[in-house]
Amino acid sequence: MKKVITLLTIGILFGFSAIIFQQIQADETVRTNEVNYAQKQVIPTTLGSDNIEILQSKGTLTDEQIAAMMKQFMDTLVQEIDDHYRVIRFDTKEALIKEFESIATKEVVKPYVDYYFEEKDNKLFILPTETPAWFIEGKDYKRNVISDQKVEITQSNETALYGPYTINVTFEKMEGQWKITKISH
Prior knowledge:
This protein is 44% helix and 24% strand. The chain is α+β, with helices and mostly antiparallel strands. A 4-stranded antiparallel β-sheet has the order 3-4-5-6, with no helix packed on it. The protein has a two-stranded antiparallel sheet with strand order 1-2.
């Protein structure tokens, strides 16, 4: 039985490796296209330094911030484990949830942590399964600006693992910092 679990785990890891490799290749293509596009852009001379400072002070949620927060969420969810699926850096769900606090609310994180992790004997273990259908960096998405404090994004994707899916994420500015406040599929 242990050999079957080991082989299954290795198979899943190879599958993840293939998906990640494909994503890296796609990301490199997107980044090259973005650099080429950015090099062709001309900043209007009517946008003086005073206007740029005003735009930056408004704290508008940028595409880079969205991508970074979504990546950090997934990077935090996928924890380093030992051979027995024990999480190395955290011993409790609460400690793991706290790790997310700079990018997401506890209400958003808790269902993910409850689904993917369990506590046994004062140790935290990951339940071996696939990561959730997720935001794909570099792929187009729709942005709905609700207010200067709330932005919703919607991205439709299709992967070999999940088929077609749509992810909706709400970001809200809380105490001067953008956080993920809702995720739905």
